[in-house]
Amino acid sequence: MPKGKIVKALSGFYYVDYEGGQIQCRGRGVFRQRKITPLVGDHVEFEYKDKREGYILSIDERKNQLTRPPIANVDQAIIVTSVKQPDLSLHLLDKFLVLVESKGIQPLLFFTKMDLLTEQEAITVKGKLAYYQRIGYTIEFLSTRDKEMIEQLSIHLNNRVSVFAGQSGVGKTSILNRIVPGLQLETDDISESLGRGKHTTRHVELIPVENGLVADTPGFSALDFKEIQLDELPNCFPEFQALQDECKFRGCMHIKEPKCAVKQALENGNILEDRYQNYLQYVEEIKNRKPRY
């Protein structure tokens, strides 16, 4: 049986990339019975009569999957954050990072609208974000008019399946339109009264860019930790994970435990105070979430 990758899902059809073209497929009834939904990014075995009539027979094991957007086997998440309109929020940024880290996906951080800042504001923002570079994250600063730099960003996409993530109105779709000539995805202006944009993306699709694939996806409709267990949370902070073997107690949550290397690093100024406070808020959020049945 032929094998391929699902590159688009729309109205109950799955479009499988195969031999330079796409086969329109439906899922077999057995998937519904087992409550399995094929996802964009899945590697599948399928059969077909012609390009418009195929059926997915089996789905390979996934290395990861996201709920919002519904996509599987992602290598990299490009987290787009604006520094103005809407203003930079490290609390939101850290939430995105936790969600991405929990899935074992490599984050890449894009900060947009740098040209809307004064020189002093730009210095302040870059100073705050230097910490994220120090703990290992790759950062790119973008101007709303900086076409050349946006074109250069395509080098990060080679040989990877990438997802763009970030709150509405930060420029995800605008970047995609500029790195994929002729794409012309729909964009909406920022709502001045709400300070945020509207969701404009209608389906999930993997788009060839350079030698990689990029998913055009809506911004996360909910930033919650429903799929993250409390004991997994410290591992979603790389600077905590790097110190965990130095803590006295295995499974240290870095809150009230004695001889905690993370709290010591915090006291020494080696861990960003705001980020640690965000961590404490996420702990409470997970503790207080309603159980699922």
UniProtKB/TrEMBL annotation:
<dbReference type="Pfam" id="PF03193">
    <property type="entry name" value="RsgA_GTPase"/>
</dbReference>
<dbReference type="InterPro" id="IPR010914">
    <property type="entry name" value="RsgA_GTPase_dom"/>
</dbReference>
<dbReference type="GO" id="GO:0005737">
    <property type="term" value="C:cytoplasm"/>
</dbReference>
<keyword id="KW-0690">Ribosome biogenesis</keyword>
<keyword id="KW-0862">Zinc</keyword>
<dbReference type="Pfam" id="PF16745">
    <property type="entry name" value="RsgA_N"/>
</dbReference>
<keyword id="KW-0378">Hydrolase</keyword>
<feature type="binding site">
    <location>
        <begin position="112"/>
        <end position="115"/>
    </location>
    <ligand>
        <name>GTP</name>
    </ligand>
</feature>
<dbReference type="InterPro" id="IPR012340">
    <property type="entry name" value="NA-bd_OB-fold"/>
</dbReference>
<dbReference type="InterPro" id="IPR031944">
    <property type="entry name" value="RsgA_N"/>
</dbReference>
<keyword id="KW-0342">GTP-binding</keyword>
<keyword id="KW-0963">Cytoplasm</keyword>
<feature type="binding site">
    <location>
        <begin position="166"/>
        <end position="174"/>
    </location>
    <ligand>
        <name>GTP</name>
    </ligand>
</feature>
<keyword id="KW-0479">Metal-binding</keyword>
<comment type="subunit">
    <text>Monomer. Associates with 30S ribosomal subunit, binds 16S rRNA.</text>
</comment>
<feature type="domain" description="CP-type G">
    <location>
        <begin position="63"/>
        <end position="223"/>
    </location>
</feature>
<dbReference type="InterPro" id="IPR004881">
    <property type="entry name" value="Ribosome_biogen_GTPase_RsgA"/>
</dbReference>
<comment type="function">
    <text>One of several proteins that assist in the late maturation steps of the functional core of the 30S ribosomal subunit. Helps release RbfA from mature subunits. May play a role in the assembly of ribosomal proteins into the subunit. Circularly permuted GTPase that catalyzes slow GTP hydrolysis, GTPase activity is stimulated by the 30S ribosomal subunit.</text>
</comment>
<keyword id="KW-0547">Nucleotide-binding</keyword>
<feature type="binding site">
    <location>
        <position position="247"/>
    </location>
    <ligand>
        <name>Zn(2+)</name>
    </ligand>
</feature>
<dbReference type="InterPro" id="IPR027417">
    <property type="entry name" value="P-loop_NTPase"/>
</dbReference>
<dbReference type="GO" id="GO:0019843">
    <property type="term" value="F:rRNA binding"/>
</dbReference>
<feature type="binding site">
    <location>
        <position position="260"/>
    </location>
    <ligand>
        <name>Zn(2+)</name>
    </ligand>
</feature>
<dbReference type="GO" id="GO:0046872">
    <property type="term" value="F:metal ion binding"/>
</dbReference>
<dbReference type="GO" id="GO:0042274">
    <property type="term" value="P:ribosomal small subunit biogenesis"/>
</dbReference>
<feature type="binding site">
    <location>
        <position position="252"/>
    </location>
    <ligand>
        <name>Zn(2+)</name>
    </ligand>
</feature>
<feature type="binding site">
    <location>
        <position position="254"/>
    </location>
    <ligand>
        <name>Zn(2+)</name>
    </ligand>
</feature>
<dbReference type="GO" id="GO:0005525">
    <property type="term" value="F:GTP binding"/>
</dbReference>
<keyword id="KW-0694">RNA-binding</keyword>
<keyword id="KW-0699">rRNA-binding</keyword>
<dbReference type="InterPro" id="IPR030378">
    <property type="entry name" value="G_CP_dom"/>
</dbReference>
<comment type="similarity">
    <text>Belongs to the TRAFAC class YlqF/YawG GTPase family. RsgA subfamily.</text>
</comment>
<dbReference type="GO" id="GO:0003924">
    <property type="term" value="F:GTPase activity"/>
</dbReference>
<protein>
    <recommendedName>
        <fullName>Small ribosomal subunit biogenesis GTPase RsgA</fullName>
        <ecNumber>3.6.1.-</ecNumber>
    </recommendedName>
</protein>
<feature type="domain" description="EngC GTPase">
    <location>
        <begin position="72"/>
        <end position="221"/>
    </location>
</feature>
